[in-house]
Amino acid sequence: MSTISGAMATKNDTQPRRSRGRPSTFDRTEALNWAMKLFWEQGYEGTSFDQLIQAMGISPSSFYNSFGSKERLYKEATDAYLSMSGVWFAGRLCGTVDTREAFKELLDATAVEFTRHSHPSGCMISLAGTHLPAEFTSIRETMAGHRANAEEMMAQRLRKGVEDGDLPPGTDVPALAAFYSAVTRGMAVQARDGASQQKLKTIADIAMQAWPVQSHRRKSARPRGTRVA
Prior knowledge:
Layout: H1 3-14, H2 28-42, H3 49-56, H4 60-67, H5 70-93, H6 99-113, H7 137-164, H8 173-192, H9 197-208
Helix pairs in contact: 2-3, 2-5, 5-6, 5-7, 6-9, 7-8, 8-9
C-alpha cells in the first residue's frame, strides 16, 4: 500500500462520519497539504475527485466552495509545494558560499529531500504534466513554466559565479544550467523508482565532476627581494 493511500485509510478510519446538512468547518491549510501529497504521489490525472475529498476530509460542497475546481486546487497545491521546496532549493543555491560549493550543496540537499519518508519520494514538479492530453494544456504549460523558473534560478547563480570569478569567463551558462537541471530531474525519477539517498548522492558527486575548471591559474606572489634563478 502506498504512503498516501495508507495514510488516507488511517485518516478515514479515525475521522467521524459527517452528518447531512450544513458541512462542518475544516482546516483549509491541512486539507491543502493532504491534496498536495496526493497529487505529488499520483499526479493530476491519476487522482480522482473522490480520493481528494476523502484525503482532505471534506464534503463535495466544501471542496467547491473553498477550492473551486480540481484544476484550481492542483495549481494551489503546486504553489504550496513550491513554497516548501523553495526553502531548501533557494537556500542552498543562493547562499554566501562560492558557486561550485552552492551547486554541490544544492545537489546534496536534493538527494536528502527527494528521499525523505515524511512525504512522497522525488519531486512534485519534475515530471508533472508531461503526459497530459490536450484538454489539460494549461496545467502542462504551468508545470513547464515552473521547471523553466528553477533552471533560470540556476542560470542566475551561474552568471553571478562568472562575475565573481568562480567560473571561467567563457562559461556556457545556459547549457550548464540545463545540465544541472536535467541532473536534478533525473534524481527525481531515480527517487520515485526507489533509489536510496546514498545512490542519489553518488549521482550528485559525479555530476559535480562536470564543473568547469578555470583555464588559468593565478600566479603566486613572490616575497620582495626574491631573485628568480
